[in-house]
Write a structure and sequence with these properties.
four-stranded antiparallel sheet, alpha+beta
């Protein structure tokens, strides 16, 4: 007979095993990547606090200092940040 504690431990283990990566973790990585791209392109941005995906490789990034940028890949394959 399985006790409640063992059943709870089993359910918790199975949930942890089958759980995928948290969407919030992906968002944090995206925000850091967008911050790096914007800063490397010489634009002022302390930290990207939110991003809205428009298409593949096309995002609207809002910085902590109030600036907004469209970060996308142009026809030549270069990453571009345009101030909005």
């Amino acid at each position: 007979m399985i006790t409640r504690a063992r059943a709870s431990a089993l359910l918790f283990s199975l949930a942890a095993l089958f759980a995928g990566p948290a969407p919030a973790a992906e968002d944090v990585t995206l925000l850091k990547d967008l911050t790096s791209v914007i800063v490397l392109l010489g634009m002022p941005c302390d930290r990207v606090v939110s991003a809205r995906r428009q298409a593949d490789n096309d995002h609207i990034a809002s910085c902590e200092n109030g600036n907004r940028y469209r970060v996308f890949m142009n026809a030549q394959g270069r990453v571009v940040a345009q101030k909005q």
